[in-house]
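dumping this here before i forget
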Amino acid sequence: MPPRSDEPRRDPTGARRGSSRDAGPVDGESRTGEPGIGGISGARAYTPRGRTVREERGTPARSGGAEQRRTPRSTRSGDPFRPALQVLDGGRAAARAGRRDAPAAGRGGVVRTVSPRTPRAPGVDEPPPRRRTTPRAPRRTDRPAARRPSRKPPRPPKLAESRLRLRLGTALALTLFAVIGIRLIFLQAVDAPAYAGGGIADRLRTVELPAPRGAIYDSTGAPLARSVEARYVFADPTEVKDPASTAAALSPLLGIPSSKLVELMKPRRLENGKLSTFAYLARGVEIPTAKRVQALELPGIGVHRDESRDVPGGDLAANLIGFTSQDMAGLEGLEARYDDVLAGQDGKRVYEAGLGDLAAPIPGGYSQTTPAKPGSSLTLTIDRDLQFRTQQILSAGMAQQRGGTGVAVIIEIPSGAVLAQASNPTYSAAKPFPSDPVAREDAATSFVVDPGSIHKAITFGAALQEGVITRDTALPIANSIKKGDTWFSDTHPADGKKMSVPGMLAYSSNVGTITIAGQLGKDRLIDYQKRFGLGKPTGEGMPGEASGRLLPADEWSDSSEGSVPIGHSVDATPLQMAAAYAAIANNGTYVQPHLIKEIIGPDGKRTPAPAPATRSVLSPQNAADLREMLEAVTTVDHATGLTAAVPGYRVAGKTGTGWRYVDGKKQPGEVSSFIGMAPAENPRYVIAVFVYAPNFGGAAIAGPAFRDMMQFTLRHYRVPPSTGGSAPKFVVYPR
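structure:
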């Protein structure tokens, strides 16, 4: 809409309307103080409701052809939308109207009022308004024109500030997005593990990854026990639908009673309160059997890679090796003693799996694998071939003694390595159950006996070292001697004649040994017993090795002075006595017997076993003299050890007869033994054979068994026959 002109409106005659100042008189009326009809003064006389002051005061309008007075609104265009358009126009039209309708200068904001007229009598016409008939006198030029006061446009209606609202809305939106962003950060970063793990526990599955157990090898590298690939059968109790029928199907394949399988498949809760999803049913299952289990497709039953212990030799060195449980834990023997070395560290795989028909690893789901760490292997000093032959000879001899116990130990000189260690009865380590627990014991380290006459070598060795006797000593020997309330007699009476020291050993003279021990003294004898290794475990490496026992000097009775020197009232194991003779064979130096040669790590690195403990017991010369005197046992006529002689080799040794005590009670029968070394001039091996015969007769087994074992050992290691000729000629009764 175009803006209204500021020029005053004019009537049809060309005169400006609403101007009392410029309009002339009309119809001869002179100008009075009353505003003319349609003048500006009339507009100003209107009240805000659009009526004039006269109408407000109740003055009746003039009649009779008088021109109707227009209100300020009537001077406008009459457009009812003009106020709204003026608002949309930003108040500019209102400002122009304000400037046009502003009061004249000098009148300010004063509203002219019209004095009320005196009412006329009825029938008297209203005189026409007076008009100016003469022109207005010209404005004086000598005074300045009156300054028209500036008209301030009325302030338009205050509208809402759009920029403020925009800023406020933007701030609220940014705040909202900031709060949402911060919450997302907490959810994705801080609280993510808690939310992620909220349900993952129900989907996790754990599979054990058994660590391969280390092997046990003989000295040549041949396996004595090793782990082979197998399978284990497991159950998920939460997935097994019918435990009874499932157990019935598995029982004939696994060889486990159905009742036990049902018990294993029962749901059980873990420490965290959740149901267990894994239970072993069988370990070490052969692969063909495992395939048959898989073919059944039983719900909740699975098969996974496992290992089983393979013992190729069966009963070969079984008492040494021992065996393991189904979960590869060592139970007896070296398997138990070195379980921490042989057993590796099991690994495990934890992964997310679906449920029901989707019980498989979820691609991209949680999965963590801890690899298994294989165990180390042991290399023993045992020679498999020698061990086999030793067990064979011992078993053949013990077949004559039912209910008896046999032991054989072979020690290498000078290393102290145990080349063979056999026990009888024995068992198969490949199938240890069922077997007699006694048959599973290693008799060499657990069988405690009175050594008997084999102890005499220790008494004579101490006397030589202490200078009580020499190799040429001869003493008159009675048929019997009394110590305390006990008489000690010889099996070969001397009738009081002089007897040489070799003769005393050849005929195993109790009287001669007790006589020499009396000159030595009990304190020095006990000291040499300890030097030779009696009274404490050897530390060979077998678990549960017995220590034996020596009778302290303050516990000796009068009869102890007769019993102890000849090997009674002394507790010792076959291995302890074998180690004592090995010291004599090794020029008087005691070397700790040992079974472990080296340890092979998972990476193949070989670590030698710690060096064995050694100590000097006899001087080399005294040890050589004692060895020579011990040769009389296998060479002198009617000597006690003739059956132990090895053709072509000089053999030095000693027979013994002792007893077996259990809980302080003497057992029936006797313990017969022979310990010897060959070649006597330069010993390479020491062999000890013990036979406990409940029905007596053990001596007939021990001597021949030693001979056969020593003969095989010398040939097996290709030891040449004795080059020093035959044994010296001993005189039993010198003149």
